[in-house]
């Protein structure tokens, strides 16, 4: 066998301590079944605080809005609701998320409504005083109509902008920074209609600022968008409007893999495997979007860059410190000097290190006689933990069941992780995963850092397989306490009844 | 030397011996092929001209655009060549990370298209990358693009097989060196030169240098990226090694400061990679009485990489402070020495002060124009810093109120002005933000 190509996860406190308590994790799965999602509500508060540190460093005011779509947990939301209302809010993208946020303790003024909105969503948002992040002039008209028809109060609105690459900034001829096309937001060059609609509907909506969300890892693109928004808000002020908030969306990233070298070794090996100079690293030689054309690699690897030197708050800090293309001042200075609040909508990065997914090993058998590889069947499917769907590559942590003797020879082994659906395509990951030793039925695999999108985004009841239950856990002295996600409240220790307080 | 066109000055670059006292190899003569002395400044002048020439000489009508995926030297050469022939040049890249190079290209009249970053959320339906779009646009029958295609065009290799390689052999009195060392970008220079050298002597060993995977050296590729290059054939190289940006800068500094060669980072990488590799061979030669020869390429010049160096090794460009500077005031000193004034008191001071204080707003003109304290003067902090180097910019009889966004920068400047002897300078506590939050008036221009 080749040297094992590990992609071991980045594990930070308190998740690291939880992973070492395998008896506790086994007892949870024994009681609640596999798959099982485990959340650490305290970690989300810690992440919010790290983002706030970046705000403080740059003297910025504004809110961190958790992008609810990243995870449907109540515990995480309630824990965030207990944070300083001026500092932490929630970004909801459906009427159900809005209801959930309200039920978890967020008052309307801490809620940002984004995404595609139907009438019910718009009405409830307006009713509770949420800020509506408008996607188009049409949405503005529908919102205004509802406010008039139902005698509601004026609604705070942000306008979400897009198409920054076509903006006629003062960049001078010669340079065009292309952007990924977005289906959201109003193109910057079409804002005239939007502004006149805002002015026309001034009795129903209060224009409080601009927003963008770019699906890119490119800092330059984001810095440019940010600056274009500042210039746009300035034009708005010149027209007598008084916007003061700029919402720069999410996309700050998470580092899943701990070691840069492991990530580099693996991705290099993928290229070599696609070129055929080494054995495949994936189920049936899947190339993750790379292909071999006459000895030259073409295409781009459809993978989440799983090792990142900076992510989350660090990425925000970098963005705020980059010189902006037109005015030259870094975004943080621009915001501060123009007296704007900064809003951000982190999803994945705010729930970094907040949870893991557990799956029980059902069956282990050799893949084929001479490969030395094994098929490991798990009581979980690709919907329960959509690593593939999100292009996230990271190894699970093996949690042997106490007392079992090691199978195989106790040496590292390459395994393919199969799901519990009766489908050839139900693989937990298409990657050949190396484990430090061969698991046996009854062992657990813990997938770390799944709370951001991977945990329940695609989970469904196909084939009547159980959907993962979710529990919140908290360290108490030397041991862990747990409660069902829906029973968590940040006012009582986990596992105790509120009236015990 | 008298030419009719600058293109005739391409090639015939010198081969210069590196002083053994610098590299310390006892049995190997190390030579630098100074491609940086090509007229447009780099090794890319040759392939750029060789690839573009047929297109350009045919482009009589002056329409059309030469396009290339290039972040630097090829773009530079093509932009100049295109300009001479009255056609436009466009560079498409996502690697234009060195600002001087970008600005230089703009000066040359190039258009730059920067490719977007990677998608943060994986979109499984997005099967093609920006480059695929680029190639599709080129293939459009209506397009008037002339794509030089340096990563796949055999004329890139040919330019070096006809020029660079034979020149090295000629300057070594008809012999091939024992080692040839080159950084790999398009693989054009290394492939072309290696081919010619091996024809002379199949024993020549070729060392290809790539950038360390997580690192960035402008102009060269990482080990993964070379596999995306059509001209790259692993069989060309006896060894492929990686170098870090740190090593590249070390090498560059040695070439500049000790050899008088004004090399850029890839020349530095080639030198450093060569010496690292040759040291073992040199030890083995000890006592055998044999001498060997090695040649590496200095691809381009240092000037375009100052910000690259500044980012990685600021101490190499360390600017010592001159004159008085607010930057010299520490936070603690600023707090101890500067006078602050709260918003309400400041408003009273304006109304009743005699003489009235001069309000200086240290924010950028753009922010100032958007909203400011009526009657205030805008001197952006960077300019103010420069002003102070010259001495006190205000009469000591004029009281001064300094304002910035949150009262932090203004505190520093207030301390600096006090040190310079101004008797009545104050910093607005909490800055313009506090002013606004207190409901005090702000006006627009
Ligand atoms: C500065 C610099 N050095 C080295 C190289 C490598 O040259 P080649 O690709 O021809 O091997 C290039 C080309 O991209 C370059 O621009």
Weakly predicted, low-confidence segments of chain A:
none
The overall average pLDDT of chain A, rounded, is: 92
Estimate percent helicity of chain B.
40-55%
What's the Cα radius of gyration of chain B?
29 Å
Largest interface: A-B, 56 and 50 residues
Strand order of the largest sheet of chain B: 1-2-10-7-8-9
| N-to-C CA distance of chain A | 57 Å
Output the structural class of chain A: alpha/beta
Helical content of chain A stands at 25-40%
Tell me, what's the shape of chain A?
Answer: globular
> How much of the residues of chain A is beta strand, in percent?
15-25%
Distance N terminus to C terminus of chain B?
Answer: 60 Å
- Fraction in beta strands of chain B: 15-25%
Task: Give the C-alpha Rg of chain A.
Answer: 24 Å
Low-confidence blocks of residues of chain B: none
Describe it for me?
The complex is a heterodimer of chains A (501) and B (445). Chain A contains twelve helices and 21 strands. Chain A has helices at residues 15-20, 22-32, 41-57, 74-81, 95-103, 119-128, 137-149, 191-200, 219-238, 260-275, 313-321, 331-337, and strands at 36-39, 64-67, 88-92, 111-113, 131-134, 155-162, 175-177, 186-187, 205-211, 245-247, 291-293, 296-298, 341-343, 355-366, 374-378, 397-399, 413-418, 433-435, 444-448, 469-476, 479-484. In chain A, helix 9 (219-238) links the parallel strand 9 (205-211) and strand 10 (245-247). In chain A, helix 3 packs across helix 4 (74-81), helix 3 (41-57) packs parallel to helix 11 (313-321) and helix 9 (219-238) packs across helix 11 (313-321). The longest helix of chain A has 20 residues, at 219-238. Chain A is globular, with a radius of gyration of 24 Å. In chain B, helix 2 runs parallel beside helix 3 and helix 6 crosses helix 7. The chains are: A alpha/beta (501), B alpha/beta (445). The interface between A and B is large, with 56 and 50 residues. Pyridoxal-5'-phosphate (PLP) binds next to strand 7 and helix 7 of chain B.
